[in-house]
Design a protein that fits this description.
mainly beta; Jelly Rolls; six-stranded antiparallel sheet; five-stranded antiparallel sheet; 3 helices
């Protein structure tokens, strides 16, 4: 299995992602949105849309983070992914991304703008895609501090601390 994972990383020239996993940007729209057309506290210009390939591997996770845009997740290959979502109002739910519809897995799902989310493969690896609109910009990315996030959402403290690196 390690050979297959290494092949994916090398074939797509993937890099380690700050939140965990590996990624490769696969699309960045040439169409730009101006600051006055943006919302959610975004400043400056943003590409209309961006997309990445994202690889999660066994014994790792994508740490809790949030962005200022909606993010559409697409399942491509490997094992299912659990996406843990905490909305600003505290509503918590899990999205199961995968191909087994009989086990309530879905091929696509949206994580809404401003929601905290973390993910983990349920197996050796998961290859997914993430499409963001307005397009992703690290200025709109916030990695969670576990203690602060757990204080804000104490009902999810155990989960939050398990999916944070600081």
């Amino acid at each position: 299995m390690k050979a297959a994972i290494d092949s994916i990383i090398q074939s797509y020239k993937m890099l380690p992602h700050p939140e965990g996993g590996f990624y490769k940007e696969s699309y960045r729209s040439d169409l730009l949105l101006e600051g006055d057309s943006l919302s959610n506290g975004m400043n400056g210009r943003r590409n209309c849309s961006t997309a990445i390939l994202f690889l999660l591997v066994e014994n790792s996770f994508s740490a809790f983070h949030r962005i200022k845009s909606d993010e559409v997740w697409h399942f491509y290959d490997g094992d299912p992914v659990q996406i843990h979502v905490i909305e600003p109002n505290g509503h918590y739910y899990i999205i199961k991304l995968g191909r087994n519809t009989l086990d309530n897995e879905v091929f696509q799902a949206v994580v809404p703008a401003g929601a905290w989310f973390a993910s983990k493969t349920i197996g050796a690896y998961s290859l997914v895609g993430c499409t963001v609109s307005p397009g992703f910009d690290f200025a709109d990315f916030e990695l969670a501090n576990g203690e602060s996030l757990a204080a804000e959402f104490p009902d999810q403290k155990e989960l939050i601390l398990a999916f944070c690196r600081h």
